[in-house]
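User: Some background: our group keeps a shared notebook of sequences we're curious about, and every so often someone picks one and asks for a predicted structure to add to the entry. Today it's my turn. The entry only has the sequence so far, pasted here. Could you supply the structure so I can complete it?
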Amino acid sequence: MVPFVSDTALADDADDLIRPFMIDANGLHGRLVRLGPALDTPLTAHDYPEPVAVLLGEALALVSGLSAGLKFSGVFSLQARGDGPVKLVVADVTTDGAIRGYADVKDDIPDGVSDAPIPRLLGAGRLAFTVDQGPDTEQHQGIVDLQGANLADCVHHYFQQSSQYTAAVKLACCRDAENRWRGGAIILQRLPEDENPFERDKLEEGWRTALTLMGSCTPEELCDPDLAPDRLLFRLFHEDGVRVFPARPLKFACNCSRDRMQAAVSMLSDVEREEMTIDGRITVTCQFCNAEQIFDPLSLEPVHTA
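Assistant: Of course. Here's the predicted structure to add to the notebook entry:
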């Protein structure tokens, strides 16, 4: 069976997208994420050690792919907190495809962390996924312990704790031949099982086959700018027939501004602002895009206390 590609299929050079797909024979939903400039921009803005940049790139690919399987209006975020040299990794995506993220690195990164980045970078801690739909709505959050050698392992542990979501992921982040950061993800999700025992056995076999095929995808293939997303999906799943659906664009976007930064500094106490003042000025740096704004501490709005 050959795949059906919708009329909205993107060109071969498409990038920064989420491509939903379905494997009809096995009753599986999936999303393929491909990140190029939307990932290179925030990673290049920071001088992260290589393993930290890779971890953050995988986190951004992951939240992008997971968000496409949710119904929400707002922000979907990942936070991984630990007691290792990397204290915090944050990645989020809005419903219109704006992604951003940062890592809080407190200590020197040890050598040889690529085989087990989670315990060696983050250490012991928690992984949280949050859906925030605005100030007038209740946040939905799921939290699990960080368990696993890499981020994909931790997410699989999260899925195992959920009786409503059976899924598997493949994540990648690396540099291309021109030293630009690229990333990708494949997410496979099972539909509710059929009550017919024969159908259950068939779907179980199809699930195992799809996991094997997804596992055969190399990080280089997942990030390769010369391998179009639809061609990669065909290469992996064509024997069982794969249908693709309209892609969702992704972009890097940060909502920081001078006014926001000034408002934040103005809320600090006189003592706190004095501690931040160096050579007669206060410098505020955005954690997400690394943009700097400089303020004269004397021109800020005064702090009002009751």
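Suggested note for the entry: Residues 20 and 245 are 5 Å apart (CA to CA). The chain has nine helices and 15 strands.
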